[in-house]
Amino acid sequence: MVDKNLVTSVLKFTEAKDMPISTLSLLNADGEILEGAQEPKIDKHTALKIYRDMNYIRVLDERMIGAQRQGRLSFYVTCTGEEASVVGSVAAFSSQDMVMSQYREHAALRYRGFTSKQFMNQLLSNDLDLGKGRQMPIHYGSRDLNYMTISSTLATQIPQAAGYAYGQKLSGNDTCTICYFGEGAASEGDFHAGLNIAAVSKCPVVFVVRNNGYAISTPTVEQFVGDGIAPRGVGYGIPAIRVDGNDILAVHAASVEARNLAIEKSTPVIVETMSYRLGAHSTSDDPTSYRTSEEEEMWRQKDPIERMKKWLLGKGWWSDQQDHQMKDEYKKEILGALKSQEKRQPPVLDHLISDVYQIPPAHLREQYSELLAHIDKYPDHYLPNPTKGHDSYHKPAAQFS
Ligand SMILES: Cc1ncc(C[n+]2csc(CCOP(=O)(O)OP(=O)(O)O)c2C)c(N)n1
Ligand SMILES: [Mg+2]
Hints:
α6 (189-200) links the parallel β3 (177-182) and β4 (205-211). The longest helix is centred in the N-terminal third of the chain and has 26 residues, at 44-69. This protein has helices spanning 44-69, 83-90, 106-112, 116-123, 157-171, 189-200, 220-223, 230-235, 248-264, 293-300, 304-315, 320-341, 362-377, 390-393, and strands at residues 23-24, 98-100, 177-182, 205-211, 214-215, 218-219, 240-244, 269-274. By secondary structure, it is of the alpha/beta class. It has 2 domains: 16-341, 3-Layer(aba) Sandwich (Rossmann fold); 349-400, no CATH class. It has a 6-stranded parallel β-sheet with strand order 1-7-8-4-3-2, with helices on both faces. It has a two-stranded antiparallel sheet with strand order 5-6. Residues 104, 152-154, 181-185, 210, 212, 214-216, 277, 281 line the site of thiamine diphosphate. Magnesium ion (MG) is lined by residues 182-184, 212, 214-215. It is an enzyme of class 1 (oxidoreductase). This is 2-oxoisovalerate dehydrogenase subunit alpha. It catalyses: N(6)-[(R)-lipoyl]-L-lysyl-[protein] + 3-methyl-2-oxobutanoate + H(+) = N(6)-[(R)-S(8)-2-methylpropanoyldihydrolipoyl]-L-lysyl-[protein] + CO2.
């Protein structure tokens, strides 16, 4: 709201440096609470679950990059380096709150209970994929876990999250939405439209902006001149906080307060997590062409998982032996799931055009017929159903024919 009484006779432009935003930081690199800081309240059970899920995702990412290199997956995106930004934030929310994510936040889905087999079903587009094989790998979604299906068109989830949160407010059931995106997505028009409508309509939505230094190959210095993303929230009248995204305690404490604010004051909130995308943008990217190994190494030293481990060891809540055992278990579980789920069949072909309309319209049926003709022409390129023969695999369901 503009304060019309704030009048001055001094002609002076306001600059970003006049309104600095500080970064909340609680843990030092050795996993100790910073001098003068207070350790936030977090129970042992939650802390260990957060730590385990951060590790699970690190192992999953390493194994899936390997699987993609072996030609077993077509595409993959990692969360490496940003695990604390994602797990630390989602852990502050209720399982009834909706998660709307970009594509690098599968750690939040794991925190909600997604299993190794479910990850594989989606990545491999098999018959058990909840998305019925219609999306590229990593476009997860789960109705049961309140995780909205991902759309890789940047920033579309931002106005959608505002709308979803508005519905939650109307329902009066004290739930909210957590909406993730990268600093690059904040250059989209949808970011501005979404934030403003959320502010004006007082929607209980927490926007978690992962500021990880890059939008593919474009560093933040070439993306914007302003002081990151948090001040943009303030510009829209939204309370904003910036945190060290590699500091699990800072991310979690800020997210707990952000959720309280969102629900109690019915307001959007912004949490900007400062971190670094340690891996490539995706398996289609090669970061050595646009950044130095020294820069990567500098951030590797700030690994959020290592920092949390040191804190847990210091509290006596964890041991090195448990750490080794956990990593081995995750490796076995993930590779086992990959092996078993890649043996499954692809989804039934006519799922491509079912579900959206009760009766698929003419243009979809026409495209479907063209697809069948194409498969008939090149049968060697398509998997037959081993139990029923090639013909049965792509046969259209009766209602479409
Ligand atoms: C509307 C739109 N424009 C461009 C792209 C291509 N694209 C995919 S990811 C990406 C970079 C996004 O960067 P950021 O939001 O910072 O997320 P990060 O990958 O760093 O996690 C771009 C430009 C897209 N998916 N959608
Ligand atoms: Mg980014």
